[in-house]
Amino acid sequence: MTSSEPTTLTGGCLCGGVRYQIIGPRRDIINCHCENCRRTHGHIAAYTSVRKSDLDLTNEQTLQWYHDESPDTWRGFCNRCGASLFWDARDGRDKMSVAAGSLDDSGELQTIGHVFVSEAGQYYEISDGLPQFETGNDGVLEDDSSS
C-alpha cells in the first residue's frame, strides 16, 4: 500500500509561499472524515503519509503550524492563502501526513480507504466500495515497509 517508485513528488500551497518535495516512499491516500479535518479542509481530508526525513521543505516562508488539542496534533498551513498542507502527530512517529490535494502530481498514489466515517458529514455518502473504519484504521491501511 506504499508507492515506492523513486520519482520525486513536489507540491505546495496555492500562493507558492510553501513548497515541498517528497523524495522517498509514500503511503497511498486515506480519506479522513473526522470533524477536525472537515473543518480544516472544508470537506474531507485526503492524505498520503511520508517519513519526515523524506519531506524537504524547499520554501517555508508562509508555513505556520496550528496546535489541534484534540487529538494532540499539529496542522501545517499557509498563513497567506490558507491552504492546509500537513498533519503531524508529533508523538515520536517518524511520519507526517501530506494533503494529497497539495501535490503537483500524485504519481501512482491511489485512494485506499476511509477513516473516522462515524464523524462523516450528513451531506454526502461514501459509496466507492473502499474499506471504511468508524475511527482510525489501527494500522490496517499502513505499510510498515516505508517506516
Give a structural overview:
The protein is mainly beta and 147 residues long. It has a single domain (2-123), classed as Metal Binding Protein, Guanine Nucleotide Exchange Factor, Chain A, CATH 2.170.150.70. It contains 1 helix and 12 strands; from the N terminus they run βββββαβββββββ. It has one helix spanning 35-41; strands spanning 2-3, 9-12, 18-22, 26-27, 29-32, 45-51, 55-60, 63-68, 73-78, 84-88, 95-99, 111-115. The strands form 3 sheets. The chain has a 7-stranded mixed beta sheet. A 3-stranded antiparallel beta sheet has the order 2-3-7, with no helix packed on it. Strand 10 and strand 11 (95-99) form a beta hairpin. The longest helix has 7 residues, at 35-41.
Key structural traits:
Metal Binding Protein, Guanine Nucleotide Exchange Factor, Chain A; mainly beta; 1 helix; 147 residues; globular; 39% strand
Looking at CATH, which topology would you report? Metal Binding Protein, Guanine Nucleotide Exchange Factor, Chain A
Strand order of the largest sheet: 8-9-10-11-6-5-12
Total of helices: 1
Determine the mean pLDDT.
91
Q: Helix- and strand-based class? A: mainly beta
Short note summarizing the structure:
The protein is 5% helix and 39% strand. With 147 residues, it is mainly beta. It has a seven-stranded mixed sheet. A three-stranded antiparallel sheet has the order 2-3-7, with no helix packed on it.
